[in-house]
Amino acid sequence: MSDYCIGLTGGIASGKSALEREFAARGIFVADADLIARQIVEPGQPALAAVAAHFGASVLSADGSLDRAGLRAYVFGDETARHALEAILHPLIRTTLLDQCRGADSPYAIATIPLLTEGGGRSAYPWLDRILVIDAPFATQKDRLMERDGIDSDLAERMIAAQASRAQRLALADDIVVNDGSLGHLQQAAADLDARYRALAAAAS
Predict the structure, then answer these.
(1) Which of 22, 33, 98, 100 is the most buried (most CB within 10 A)?
(2) Is residue 182 annotated as involved in ligand binding?
């Protein structure tokens, strides 16, 4: 059981998954809000029924699964729709994250929460002991997002703009990793933070 939890956040395509992997390689349990968000809208899950009830059957594929690409394009073009989707999914995601982190068997746990800033920050996640922000320049985010998702420049810019600003995220940070594309830098930052978090968790126990 882990009583010390670190919230990891950052803008879309800032490198959260890469930093996650560095902590996991050091034996640290990672709970990922994006993974949980996908799991809770699998066919047969109550959250999928709630999404379909709110947005209509058009958000479902022919096999009854969620049309993720279609829903994403829709909500990123309509702020009201995006907030409605978040209101359905975020409470369940928060509960699941806490349960997974508290059940971790590593010295501390990482909770990766891409929308931590947008979702209420510390007030929505009072159980986080520290917040770690991974930061990347806008142009780097945009290029990575276009390459990763195979989308055009306009959608990439709208997806980034729909999130909190870099300044808003950095204002929440206890720790910051600047991800400028250097894997060596990312690995060293993770090693340094891992040592710090182990010491903090031990002191808090």
Answers:
(1) 33
(2) no
The answer to whether 142 is a known ligand-binding residue is: no
What pLDDT shows up at residue 1? 67
Q: DSSP assignment, residue 164?
A: P
Amino acid at 8: L
Mean pLDDT by 10 residues, the chain (205 residues): 91 92 97 93 91 90 90 85 90 93 96 90 94 93 92 92 90 93 88 98 92
Fold of 5-204: Rossmann fold (3.40.50)
Give the gyration radius of the chain's Cα atoms: 17
Does 15 belong to an annotated binding site?
yes
Residue 106 labeled ligand binder: no
Distance CA 72, CA 59 (A): 10
pTM of the model as a whole: 0.84
Distance CA 98, CA 185 (A): 30
113 contacts 9 by C-beta, under 8 angstroms: yes
Residue 96, token pair as written in the block: 């699941």
Q: Is 17 annotated as a binding residue?
A: yes
Q: Tell whether 77 is in a known binding site.
A: no
> Side chain identity at 142, as an amino acid letter?
K
